């Protein structure tokens, strides 16, 4: 170690500052390879939280029941209209659409592309994402056009005592 | 084939796999296949030591080459 310190400039071996000052504009083969290793490190570190959250979900999966939540009164929603609500958490936007007298569908309204809020266009009978014009099918929540590839998560609803309640978020069937 | 090239290309492959695994991980996570997501996460994690190993080996080999000349 002391030997290393006595040399000026001493040999650096790190993965971030690998371009030497006096030929700043040159990134040699070794330097480039170092950058690749550094990038692999960044990938590794940044995938950690995903793994951690996934592990957490995996352990607590059984208790994924949320308290039922009232969305709106039946007579307040006309056929073909939509209501925004929050489910399951305070920050999870959701969308309830009344398709007919009996038929209600509800989805988590964060677009599966980049999380923009999806809205219901009555005239076209489609759910549309304003950001990149993704379209979703109302009946199933599956993407029909634009960049999204994953269906919107379905929220199960039930009608009880003249009001609509959100029951749970359906799991994707794989 | 030239060893330098082999090392270089294996690093590129590592990084490419990193990108692929990350993409797959995020998608499987969103699809709620958490076990598969964890698998990709682990794969991503082991790619780093592999890349590091390739780099170190390259360093060592080029040192040997220099001494031989
Ligand atoms: S965020 Fe919805 S289409 Fe891009």
TrEMBL record, chain A:
InterPro entries assigned: Rieske_2Fe-2S, Rieske_2Fe-2S_sf, Rieske_Fe-S_prot, TAT_signal
SUPFAM superfamilies in the cross-refs: ISP domain
Keywords carried by this UniProt record: 2Fe-2S, Disulfide bond, Iron, Iron-sulfur, Membrane, Metal-binding, Transmembrane, Transmembrane helix
A Pfam family: Rieske
Domain of life of the source: Bacteria
Transmembrane parts of this sequence: 31-52
Keyword Iron: yes
UniProt xrefs under CDD domains: Rieske
Gene3D superfamilies associated with the record: Rieske [2Fe-2S] iron-sulphur domain (2.102.10.10)
An annotated Gene Ontology molecular function: oxidoreductase activity, acting on paired donors, with incorporation or reduction of molecular oxygen
Domain Rieske span(s) in chain numbering: 69-166
The protein, known as: Rieske (2Fe-2S) protein
Organism: Robertmurraya kyonggiensis
Lineage: Bacteria, Bacillati, Bacillota, Bacilli, Bacillales
UniProtKB/TrEMBL annotation, chain B:
Keyword annotations of the record: Membrane, Transmembrane, Transmembrane helix
Transmembrane segments: 38-55
Name of this chain's protein: Uncharacterized protein
């Amino acid at each position: 170690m002391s030997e290393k310190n006595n040399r000026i400039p001493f040999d650096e071996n790190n993965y971030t500052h690998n371009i030497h000052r006096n030929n700043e504009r040159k990134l040699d083969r070794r330097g480039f390879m170092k950058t690749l290793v550094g990038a692999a490190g960044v990938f590794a570190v940044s995938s950690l939280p995903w793994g951690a959250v996934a592990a957490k979900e995996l352990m607590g999966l059984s208790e994924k029941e949320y308290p039922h939540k009232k969305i709106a009164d039946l007579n307040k929603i006309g056929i073909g209209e939509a209501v925004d609500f929050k489910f399951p958490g305070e920050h999870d936007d959701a969308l309830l659409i009344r398709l007919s007298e009996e038929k209600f569908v509800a989805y988590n309204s964060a677009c599966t592309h980049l999380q923009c809020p999806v809205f219901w266009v009555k005239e076209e009978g489609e759910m549309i994402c304003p950001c990149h014009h993704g379209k979703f099918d109302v009946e199933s929540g599956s993407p029909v056009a634009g960049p999204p590839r994953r269906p919107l998560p379905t929220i199960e609803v039930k009608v009880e005592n003249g009001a609509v309640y959100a029951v749970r978020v359906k799991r994707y069937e794989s | 084939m030239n060893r330098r090239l082999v090392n270089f290309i294996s690093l590129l492959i590592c990084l490419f796999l990193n990108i692929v695994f990350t993409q797959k991980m995020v998608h499987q996570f969103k699809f709620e296949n958490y076990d598969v997501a964890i698998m990709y996460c682990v794969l991503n994690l082991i790619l780093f030591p592999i890349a590091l190993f390739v780099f170190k080996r390259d360093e060592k080999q080029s040192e040997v080459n220099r001494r031989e000349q």
